[in-house]
């Protein structure tokens, strides 16, 4: 387990933008909202604590270029909600735990996270479907002997008309192509498919 901490200056460099649109939005916030935003720059903040990496080996062996908020905001491919597409749908594929109660608990946790993190969007739950209903290609991992289903083909589920995105979650191993052993999740312009980990970390 590894703890990632950043200095106040590093956080400000990554998060503060000079984009006039963002500056204008910040200035429209009331004093309390601005104080909440400013908490993100405090390394010892109770609201924005250091990041805990439970699988540092993956991060080390698959490095990614850092991205500051300005880059994210200016990305021409960044998808934004519209008046007629403001709903996040959650689609469970197969059981998410050993019992129905456990499955419902994880769905409840995920819905709460989406409502808090994507404030202002509606979060709705679709009826869960069995793995067999996906009609996806599958394989058996030669190392783990676990069943794996093709992540990309899971994106073929019909998306509701008013969906901003569909989040598909499953406990079955995923693979994106034959040359890969596995993948933890895969996103497209219509949905995100993720493999859940049933443990105390609740990592999706």
UniProtKB/TrEMBL annotation:
<dbReference type="InterPro" id="IPR024079">
    <property type="entry name" value="MetalloPept_cat_dom_sf"/>
</dbReference>
<dbReference type="InterPro" id="IPR052009">
    <property type="entry name" value="Archaemetzincin"/>
</dbReference>
<dbReference type="GO" id="GO:0008237">
    <property type="term" value="F:metallopeptidase activity"/>
</dbReference>
<protein>
    <recommendedName>
        <fullName>Archaelysin family metallopeptidase 2</fullName>
    </recommendedName>
</protein>
């Amino acid at each position: 387990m590894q703890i990632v901490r950043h200095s106040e200056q590093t956080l400000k460099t990554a998060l503060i933008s000079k984009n006039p649109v963002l500056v204008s939005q910040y200035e429209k916030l009331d004093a309390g909202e601005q104080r909440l935003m400013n908490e993100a720059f405090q390394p010892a903040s109770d609201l924005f604590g250091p990041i805990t990496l439970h699988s540092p080996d993956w991060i080390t062996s698959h490095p990614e270029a850092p991205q500051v908020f300005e880059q994210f905001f200016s990305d021409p491919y960044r998808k934004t909600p519209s008046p007629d597409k403001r709903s996040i749908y959650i689609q469970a594929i197969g059981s998410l735990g050993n019992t129905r109660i456990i499955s419902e608990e994880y769905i409840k946790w995920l819905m709460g996270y989406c409502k808090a993190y994507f404030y202002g969007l509606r979060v709705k739950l679709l009826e869960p479907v069995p793995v067999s209903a996906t009609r996806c290609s599958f394989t058996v991992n030669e190392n783990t002997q676990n069943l794996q289903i093709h992540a990309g083909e899971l994106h073929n589920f019909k998306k509701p008309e008013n969906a901003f995105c569909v989040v598909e979650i499953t406990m079955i191993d995923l693979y994106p192509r034959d040359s890969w052993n596995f993948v933890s999740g895969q996103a497209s312009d219509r949905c995100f498919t993720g493999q859940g980990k049933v443990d105390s970390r609740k990592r999706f």
